[in-house]
Amino acid sequence: MEITTLDPSLPGVRQLQQWIRGRNPLELLLVDSVQVTGTLLWQDPEFLALRGENDADPVLINRRMVVSIRTTS
Fold first, then answer.
1. Which of 16, 52, 67, 73 could pair with 38 as two cysteines, CB 3.0-4.6 Å apart?
2. What are the backbone dihedrals phi and psi of residue 72, each rounded to the nearest 5 degrees, phi first?
3. Is the dihedral of CA 34, 11, 22, 45 positive or negative?
4. Direct distance between the N- and C-terminal alpha carbons of the chain, in angstroms, rounded to an integer
5. How far apart are CA 21 and CA 13, in angstroms?
6. Structural domains in the chain, sorted by start
7. How far apart are CA 59 and CA 40, in angstroms?
């Protein structure tokens, strides 16, 4: 498995960091047309950690599975 670093100079990475800091509610559309919602806790080069509104633990979502991300507010 190739490990890449998260490049903070990329606008998408910076936008996700803003949403993490702001605790913005997000909606992710996945490649299988499933929509998941929650608050992004952290990101790394491989995964996004998304916590649902009533969930204690986050769900890890592989970045390759994400088609789009948008705020719900």
1. 52
2. -105, 0
3. positive
4. 36
5. 12
6. 11-71 (2.30.30.100)
7. 10
